[in-house]
Amino acid sequence: MDAIQSFLYKFPQPAPHKRTEPVEELCLGFPRTGIESLSVGLQKLGLDTYHGWDLVFEPHGRKLQFCHELVRRNHHGTRDGDMQVSSAEFDLLIGDRQAVIDSLSMLLAPELLAAYPGAKVVLNGRRDVSQIVRMLVRCRSVSWLSYSVTEQRVEEVVGLCGV
Fold first, then answer.
1. Distance between CA 141 and CA 135 in Å, rounded?
2. Does the pTM of the predicted model rise above 0.85?
3. Average pLDDT of the residues in 140-147
4. DSSP string, the chain
5. In whole angstroms, what is the distance from residue 42 CA to residue 45 CA?
6. Which among 85, 105, 100, 99 has a CA at the least distance from the CA of 30?
7. CB-based contacts of 93: which residues, under 8 Å, 6+ apart?
8. Lateral strand order in the sheet of 25-29
9. Which of 1, 11, 88, 103 could serve as 62's disulfide partner, Cβ 3.0–4.6 Å?
10. For residues 6, 114, 111 and 60, what is the CA-based torsion angle, rounded to 10 degrees?
């Protein structure tokens, strides 16, 4: 399946990037938990924020495909067993953004924590767990997230967010 996808939808890799600003905030949590308000607040504090919508509106599509490859590799591994995501790979996606919020932080929370150990962490959650479960069920049935949202990952992120 990967070979077919690569053949039909191959975008060039994102351009190399050398980080000049540190990641200061990792906002870990699910979408639909006040993410947009938190994003606006971080921007008002002067932090350039990487939001999940940045992937959707990226003009070339190469970062979206690269993100999908990282998430799939992290959750399912490669033939040689590699499941790690490095800070250099994250930097290709987020550039010099100082805060990370939304989908990427949900899908790769432990990896972001390992990649940016000096960043402050905001745990974002909501008391209505049933809303999160409904959102994840919808994502699994209609979205590219269906490849990456596993039961184990849901439990990890729910545990991290204290939901």
1. 10
2. no
3. 49
4. -HHHHHHHHPPPPPPP----S---EEEEE-TTSSHHHHHHHHHHTT--EE-THHHHT-SSSHHHHHHHHHHHHHHH--TT------HHHHHHHHTT-SEE-SHHHHHTHHHHHHH-TTSEEEEE--S-HHHHHHHHHHHHHHSGGGGT--HHHHHHHHHHHT-
5. 5
6. 105
7. 14, 50, 55, 63, 66, 67, 70, 104
8. 49-50, 99-100, 25-29, 120-124
9. 11
10. -50
**Whole-angstrom distance, CA of residue 42 vs CA of residue 7:** 39
Average pLDDT over residues 34-60: 88
Scanning the structure block, which residue is given the tokens 């599509």? 61
- Position 68, amino acid: H
Q: Which amino acid is it at 45?
A: L
Asked if 92 and 16 touch (Cβ cutoff 8 Å), the reply is: yes
